[in-house]
Design brief:
Largest sheet: 6 strands, antiparallel
Bound molecules: (2~{S})-4-acetamido-2-azanyl-butanoic acid
Helix content: under 10%
Number of strands: 10
CATH architecture of one domain: Sandwich
Oligomer: single chain
CATH topology of one domain: Jelly Rolls
Radius of gyration: 14 Å
Shape: globular
Length: 130
């Protein structure tokens, strides 16, 4: 069994901040744990907008606290995100993720798992490992 805490991950390689300052993500579990998914606690800062298109990954996201919204690009639909909301990107949905009036804390799971070396690309995706 593997046990680690959020506080242990803060300030390590697992603690990743977006170059544009829009978000911070603490990756509690990565590919090398061998679970088939990765698990992250992500903070989306209030008032920010991030274009995301995980073409190579499925992601499920649960809102723990704060508020924000997600807009799907293909149809322009806007969904409010509040504590208790889950959104499931089962179609690799391209979207805009917006922080609301306060920072939003999200629990995120990726399949396939993130390795920890990915960089958010121009097109909003992460590459698959070679
Ligand atoms: C909400 C969301 O898409 N989170 C993604 C996690 C974060 N960008 C990361 O850990 O790379």
């Amino acid at each position: 069994m593997i046990v680690r805490t959020y506080d242990e991950c803060v300030g390590t390689d697992r603690d990743v901040k977006a170059e544009n300052g829009n978000w911070r993500s603490v990756r509690l579990s990565l590919k090398d744990d061998g679970m088939g998914f990765s698990f992250h606690i992500t903070t989306i800062y209030a008032g920010t907008e991030t274009h995301i298109h995980y073409k190579n990954h499925f992601e499920t996201v649960y809102c723990i606290s704060g508020n924000g919204e997600i807009e799907t690009v293909k149809d322009g639909k806007v969904y409010q995100i509040r504590p208790g909301t889950v959104y499931i990107l089962n179609e690799n949905d391209e979207h805009y993720l917006r922080g609301g009036t306060e920072d939003m804390i999200l629990a995120c799971s990726f399949n396939p798992p993130i390795t920890g070396k990915e960089v958010h690309r121009e097109d909003g995706s992460y590459a698959l490992e070679d």
